[in-house]
Write a structure and sequence with these properties.
single chain, alpha+beta, Immunoglobulin-like, Endonuclease, Chain A, 3 domains, eight-stranded mixed sheet
């Protein structure tokens, strides 16, 4: 209870008088109820003892053989403390809404306190409430079993369910599915509101604007203000200063030209009250007089289009490029080298070693093929499959090869013969080669399907050319940013093409 008491204590990070509880529960026909996700948000609001147990709302989302119910209610601090203690000692959650029920889960693991900043790219902000300002601490009970395959197994289906939930609550379980089954206690930092800006044209300092809660304005805590400026992974400006108690305070870090990390630490007790990261942008303003010679116009579909033109000569009228711009413009070179090293992005030319390309694909299969490997190429052939999928070292995983009808009947029969006559013991092989019904899909992909049960995300690589010419001409191997969309289409076409099986092992 030490961390709970530390966070809930009035004035440490917030002023709390009650707690808002939001429950998402799975309700099965046999009346078994278990937790899908529960969040308890501490708030300054006072609640009426006579009314606080009544549901604010109750919504139900019907699924095939069960439903998801959403309940929301408010508790006093003593009541939420009781619930917290039961989770610790008995792994038991007591719902305090009308029509009480209890949920017991021995798979819950309590995690140490976490500070969640308000930055957009923090995933947990998708399932927290209004973490927009100074951030929040959380105490989390983590469900390590995650028995939600019936929801997450079908990616598209789970996304639809998550959208239905999102219409009723501002949370996105699709993006943070690893929190399914968890209980989270959220303690928003509400004693302090912070704004920062560059202090002067020298770009050496930041101004902190600290606005304290009215209940502690005259008794503000001792704090440390931290500024850390980072460029190309180098610390170019860093400073720690004790808070002087004023509403405004300047902190000289020496340089705030680049990415700046800002923190405000409470000294006693030692707690983080604010954290943020970002760039303060220098903008250069200029105007251009539009004359006849600076506008291109043309007719397009019966409409006259005007395009304002900007001369390269403008570069001479703008101040010289700054040092940080030279550095930032060069970082991309290092990133390209790293992408090539990890095979996330690699360019091939006719001048490269011809075997290098296939070697790269075999490496990807070795590193990522534990859940299966799918190869999708309209010109796929026996030789391509043997050169790639046969090199998968993981015994029994699903290997799927999908070609197209670009091969004629004689060519297909020849493919079957080549597989049948291959000198191999086919040990540990689980492979099928199909021809897709449709000829509309022309892209080439190497697909690693992931594992929804373990929440392992798929990986997909765009090959840029067919396997028969891979590594032999100009093309790019590139990891796809949104792999699940490709996996969905592949699964659909694969299922549609089950009558067009060319070869399968085992039969």
């Amino acid at each position: 209870m030490d961390e709970y008491e530390l966070l809930v204590k009035s004035g440490n990070i917030g002023i709390y008088n009650s707690c808002e509880v939001t429950e998402l529960v799975i309700m099965e026909p046999n009346e078994i109820i278990y937790n899908l996700y529960t969040i308890c948000v501490f708030q300054e609001k006072n609640v009426s003892p006579e009314k606080h147990k009544y549901d604010r709302f109750c919504k139900k989302i019907n699924l095939d053989d069960c439903s998801i119910a959403i309940f929301q209610y408010e508790l006093t601090l003593s009541e939420i403390k009781e619930n917290f203690e039961k989770l610790i000692h008995e792994y038991k959650w007591i719902s305090n809404r009308e029509g009480e029920y209890s949920i017991k889960d021995n798979n819950l693991k309590r995690l140490n306190k976490q500070f969640i900043p308000s930055i957009e790219d923090n995933r947990l902000n998708h399932v927290l409430k209004n973490n927009f300002y100074s951030g929040s601490y959380i105490l989390e009970f983590f469900d390590e079993k995650k028995k939600f395959d019936f929801l997450t197994g079908d990616e598209e289906h789970f996304e639809k369910i998550s959208k239905k939930i999102h219409k009723r609550l501002p949370i996105n379980l699709f993006k943070v599915r690893d929190r399914l089954g968890n209980f989270i206690f959220q303690f928003p930092v509400n004693i302090l509101n912070v704004k920062t800006k560059v202090a002067s044209d020298s770009w050496e300092s930041l101004n902190f604007n600290l606005d304290w809660h009215h209940l502690i304005k005259d008794n503000y805590p001792d704090c440390i203000l931290e500024v850390d400026s980072i460029l190309d992974n180098n610390h170019i400006g860093t400073n720690f200063e004790e808070y002087d108690g004023n509403g405004f305070q300047e902190v000289n870090a020496g340089n705030v030209d680049s990415l700046v990390n800002i923190k405000i630490w409470r000294k006693n007790p030692k707690l983080l009250l604010y954290s943020d990261s970002g760039n303060y942008i220098k903008s250069i303003g200029f105007s251009i007089s539009i004359g006849g010679q600076n506008v291109r116009y043309f007719m397009n579909d019966g409409e006259k289009v005007f395009i304002n033109l900007y001369s390269k000569d403008l570069e001479s009228s703008v101040e010289n490029q700054k040092y940080y711009q030279y550095i930032e413009n060069s970082i991309g070179i290092k990133e390209k080298e790293l992408l090539e090293k990890t095979l996330s992005f690699k360019q091939y030319t006719p001048f490269k070693n011809k075997s290098e390309g296939i070697g790269d694909l075999r490496r990807l299969i070795r590193e990522n093929g534990k859940n299966g490997v799918y190869l999708w190429d309209p010109f796929l052939s026996f030789k391509d499959i043997v050169n790639t999928l046969f090199y998968c070292p993981f015994e029994g995983v699903a290997l799927k090869a999908l070609g197209s009808k670009k091969l004629n009947k004689d060519e297909l029969n020849n493919q079957k013969d080549l597989f049948s006559n291959l000198n191999s013991n086919f040990k540990g092989l689980n492979l099928e080669f199909r021809i897709q019904q449709s000829e509309k899909a022309h892209d080439r992909f190497l697909i690693f399907p992931g594992n929804s049960k373990r929440y392992e995300q798929p990986k997909v690589y765009s090959l840029g050319t067919s396997l028969n010419s891979f590594g032999r001409n100009y093309h790019i191997l590139q990891e796809v940013l949104h792999p699940q969309a490709v996996v969905r289409v592949f699964d659909k076409i694969w299922e549609e093409s089950k009558e067009n099986s060319i070869w399968k092992y085992p039969e």
